[in-house]
């Protein structure tokens, strides 16, 4: 542990070693599933996903501007 990293220090104190091991095991399993999916060709290309969200939020922004609402409303 890096003593200069307050977030890491807080995380180390906020959970038991058993809780941390369980959380890290779940993360490892999720990463393994994601890697297996990617290697098997399941999923969508990043460009497709990014284009979808860009179009979605551009439309939302244009609709909000048309209705006189700011991005923060």
Characterize the structure shown:
By secondary structure, the chain is an all-alpha fold. The protein has helices spanning 6-14, 17-39, 46-66. The relative contact order is 0.05.
Low-confidence segments: none
Tell me about the largest β-sheet: none
Report the oligomer: single chain
Helix amount, in percent? over 70%
The arrangement of helices and strands along the chain is HHH
Beta-strand percent range = under 5%
Compute the number of helices: 3
Number of strands: 0
- Mean pLDDT comes to 88
What is the C-alpha radius of gyration, as a whole number of Å?
A: 20 Å
Topology, element by element:
Elements lengths: L5 H9 L2 H23 L6 H21 L7
What key phrases describe this protein's structure?
73 residues, mainly alpha, 3 helices
Short recap of the structure:
With 73 residues, this protein is an all-alpha fold. It is 73% helix and 0% strand.
